[in-house]
Amino acid sequence: MKIVLNEWFKLPRLGKETFIKLMSIGVKYDKTKGFLVNEGTNLLSFSSVIKEALREEVEFYPKCAIDELVTPCDICAYREVCDRKEISSKCLCDECYNNRDIFTFYTTNLASKIE
Amino acid sequence: MLWAEKYRPDNPFQLVGNEEVRLEFIKWLKNWKENSKAALLIGPPGIGKTTLVYACAKFLKYKVLELNASDVRTKGKLEIFLKPGLIYSNLFGEKAFAFLDEVDGIYGKQDYGGLEFLLEALKFSKVPMVFAANKEDERIKKLASHCEVFRMKKIAPRLIEIYLRHVLKREGLEGDDGLIREVVKSCEGDLRSALNNLQLAMANKSTEGLLTPSVQFPLEEGITKFFQAKDIYEAYEILSSIKAEPMDKLRALYNTLIVSELPLDLKLESLKVLSYADELLNRILKTQEWRQLKYLDRLLAFGLNNLLKGYTLSYREDSLSWPLKLRIWNDSKNLRDLALYLSKQFHVSSKDFLAFYLPLMIVLFKKKRLEDMFRALGLTENMIKAINKEAKSLEVD
To answer: Which chain A residue has its CA at the smallest distance from B150's CA?
Structure first.
């Protein structure tokens, strides 16, 4: 199962117990949008809860911290050392990553969200 | 200077990773009102918790009343240091918040009511309170239930890479792509470790010997590696990765140096470095200023690595025989007892007594047999024997 971090997704009915488990590990729920896994979610626990309930392995996909595009990890040079379950939810898409002024873009982009 | 210190961001947007948490934390501080909850930042070391707190303080023009929780653990001390700051909503007309770093260090067996005081302080504090901890264990959950919790995670490798390139640019250096990637791979999401490794790799022009943050050496292996380090940065990294108490590290370094084949003048200089470190450690133990411990490793690494360039030493246990060690211990105990006893009689500190009065007494003892006078002063036979022994070893007539 592919889960995009910081993006709402639907799950089949999992029962009350599993739902409570998901809520206790920081998964967000909205009746209309579904579930959301973000920075505050314990991804290790999320994987094991889903594996137990649906017998499926979970693969997490980050979003780009700048343009919010989904960033596949397949061609990333750091794929082997990057454990998405332990790492903060956002990364950089290839286009942003290869930009020469990326650090400036990254910092100004975040600053613009608060000011 | 370490790049991790030199390029510590002073603006919350210049950090990398944990973007949402950073924004949430800024909002929390910006919107804080008297009845708002305190903040608890939890996350592994080296990801920027402390930096975020200080950068936010600067950004929102707050003064930080900082207290490293490892420094002061008891209720009494926390009360003295914190209470005045917490009951006034501003400090000399400036906004301020209290910050307790490494708060997980407060819940040891030496807590002595520290946690109870903090929980109480949360009720009466008129300023925001911010706590930071590395781990969320059972003990910290009690505090977490009264706080708004901000969980921070390790940093994505690509984000670490852009930060390292930014630092290299500011240093005016050109980094090889392969070298930078190796550094990023070695740091396991820990930015501080990445910066230390980058500095090391740039100095050596090689990625050989990079340290992963989780590496911890046993004492014997660590001391040997320390003496083999190529430069001060590597020496510092190794020393701080040794899994041992500071006093045990110091003893191991002493034992290795004392039995080494180093030239006498170099051995003397090295022992001087150890003596400074010993003095610092004793001061830390006395004042409980645990935060200063980071300077202990730096002092040893910078002092010894520079001094012993070109010499390769390996960890050695002290080679003194047990009976000899016992004799040294007994003699020093007798001299300590003597100093304690006579310093009171002479109305001086025992340190001054050992430095100025005892040498004089030994010379007097050498010149004339003064046992009777010493007995009249109330000295025990063991104390007199200790002075006698010192006098015999004195070469001057």
So the answer is: A40
Indicate the residue type of B85: G
A62 touches chain B (CB under 8 A): yes
Tens of pLDDT, residue by residue over A11-46, are 998 899 999 999 999 899 999 999 999 877 888 899
Rg of chain A over Cα atoms, rounded to whole angstroms, equals 16
pLDDT tens per residue across span A47-96:
999 999 999 889 899 999 999 999 888 889 998 889 888 899 899 999 99
Which of B7, B11, B13, B154 should be substituted to probe chain A, the one whose Cβ sees the most A Cβ atoms within 10 Å? B13
By CA distance, what is A97's nearest residue in B? B158
Residue B364 zone, left/alpha/beta (φ > 0; ψ -120 to 50; rest): alpha
Burial zone of B249 (CB within 10 Å; 0-12 exposed, 13-18 middle, 19+ buried): buried
Out of A87, A110, A113, whose CB is closest to B154?
A87
Contacts with B20 from chain A: Cβ below 8 Å: 6, 38-39, 89-90
Six-digit token string for B64: 């930080």
d(CA B231, CA B236) in angstroms, rounded, equals 9
Q: First vs last Cα of chain B: how many Å apart?
A: 51
Q: What is the ipTM score, two decimals?
A: 0.85
